[in-house]
Amino acid sequence: MSTLVQARRHRSGILVLLRAAAGRVRAMQETLEFVSNGLTVRGIVHRPEGRTPRAGVLLLHGWGGTRSGPHRILHSAGERLAGEGFVCLRFDFRGRGDSEGEVLDHDLNTMIEDAKCAAEYAHVALGLDTLYLVGICSGGEVAVGAMHDGLKVAGAALWSAPVFSADATLSRRARKSASYLRDYAAKLFRLETWRKLISGRIRFGVIGRVLLGGSVHQKGEGERKELSASERLRGGADSVLLIYGTADPIAEEAIDRYTALFERSGARVSLHRIVGANHGFYSWAWHQEVVERTAAWMLAEAALTAP
After folding, report:
1. pLDDT at residue 246 greater than cutoff 70
2. Do 49 and 127 lie in a common domain?
């Protein structure tokens, strides 16, 4: 990797001690910084207190998000997994959150670069030889891209990950628009929707752009090509967990593509569907199911490789 990682851990200030549930260790948080292609990437490390870590985990947020993830799902995962003995790195990609850079200067390529630098940080600065990846939405694409570039990890959990660097075909745009239309139609039966309508708080321009496909990312020059059905990963994972909601319009194509890709690359692949869940797992029950299923999978995988 041409980008040198300069890692600095800040221990000043108060460490946040999290009350662990019965049977779990206490966990603490500390800030982290590393440099990716000349810009500082900032985030949080969740680490178990008073025990040797099982492994490291990179928690990767999506295209338009930050290190907490939608409704803080990555924060929840960091706390949960640290309570089970994993060291979790949760950071903002360049151009997002507290990290340096402008959002318009960064794309899937730079997100993948950041993830590979974070993996190097975990190995060099934190001494973590075993690593797992957890990515939500485009963060799952980042995990796939890093493994395609040669990163080898013990496991990868992809939550609602779209097909890697998918072209915005007409059929894909139509599926997403139809899903959004169903969501908006359902909201017509909610009292809060009518309150927003009367008070002028409904943003019809945004709704129109979404329904016409404006929420679909249009790839720019130099962005990655969509992985073909015959691709193999140069790195990869020993085990992969795919989690999708049954109401997610991208799920079926992505499940088929990733199952074939990872099995062809030698991984054990398991699939967990959450009934009724949308792309972002916005219900608290769905949120909890994603985190708990991932924790159970990671603990089982760690037990397989324990000395």
Report:
1. yes
2. yes
Residues 91 and 131 in one domain: yes
How many structural domains compose the chain? Answer: 2
Write out the two tokens for 226.
């969509």
Tell if the pTM clears 0.70, that is, is over it.
Answer: yes
- Whose tokens are 């199952």? That residue is 259
Read off the CATH number of the domain in which 51 is found: 3.40.50.1820
- In this prediction, residue 14 has a pLDDT band, given cuts at 50, 70 and 90, of very low
**248 and 157, same structural domain?**
yes
pLDDT band at residue 164, thresholds of 50, 70 and 90? very high
User: Mean of the per-residue pLDDT values for the chain?
Assistant: 84
Report yes or no on 185 lying in a domain: yes
Q: Are 45 and 29 in contact (CB under 8 A)?
A: yes
- What DSSP string runs through the chain? --SPP--EEE--S--EEEPPPTTS--EEEEEEEEEETTEEEEEEEEEESSS--S-EEEEE--TT--TT-GGGHHHHHHHHHHHTT-EEEEEPPTTSTTSSS-GGG--HHHHHHHHHHHHHHHHHTT---SEEEEEETHHHHHHHHHHHTT-EEEEEEEESPPSTT----HHHHHHHHHHHHHHHHHHTT-HHHHHHHHHT---HHHHHHHHTTTTSPPP-TTPPPPPPTT---SSEEEEEEEEEETT-TTHHHHHHHHHHHHHHTT-EEEEEEETT--TT--SHHHHHHHHHHHHHHHHHHHHHH--
Q: Are residues 245 and 200 in the same domain?
A: no
| Cα–Cα dist 257/265, whole Å | 12
